[in-house]
Specification:
By secondary structure, the chain is mostly beta strands. The protein contains no helices and ten strands.
Length: 150
């Protein structure tokens, strides 16, 4: 059970070199948990299916020095983002699982005891052919509780 005691704001940008009109930005503002375990910071939140809002999965970002692992419950998706390295990872499209190459060019984290920010720039490739250039920013901060008058 997640303790929804943190505000989590995620902005993702994608650019597709073969389809410039397909480039875009997504934004997610949600609540979730933020904990520390064994030198890693864990950001967990629920994502809801756009087709069926009653269906959700839990996404977890495990943030370690120079490395972020993105995982999704009930899915084979596991992206490893490590600055200066390329990893072959599994990505579940909802219609099947793809093996994708993930190269992280930049990873900056200012996460501390009470939240902070993670900013990552990476590319995805399929069969060594560039699929997209991506940028993701995750802001985490304690929730302001209205009942406390804050």
């Amino acid at each position: 059970m997640l303790k929804d005691d943190y505000d989590i704001n995620i902005i993702g940008r994608q650019e597709y070199p073969d389809f410039p009109e397909g480039s875009g930005e997504i934004s997610l503002n949600t609540t979730g948990s933020y904990t520390s375990r064994g030198g890693a910071r864990l950001i967990a939140y629920k994502e809801y299916d756009t087709e069926n809002p009653k269906v959700s999965c839990t996404s977890v970002l495990k943030v370690e020095p120079g490395k972020v692992t993105m995982m999704r419950s009930g899915s084979a998706t596991r992206l490893i983002l490590e600055e200066g390295r390329r990893h072959l990872c599994l990505y579940d499209t909802g219609y099947g699982t793809l093996s994708v190459g993930v190269f992280t060019s930049s990873l900056r984290s200012s996460l501390g005891e009470r939240g902070g920010r993670v900013h990552i720039k990476y590319t995805l490739d399929i069969d060594s052919n560039l699929s997209s250039s991506n940028e993701i920013t995750v802001d985490v901060k304690p929730r302001v509780r209205a009942e406390l008058g804050i």
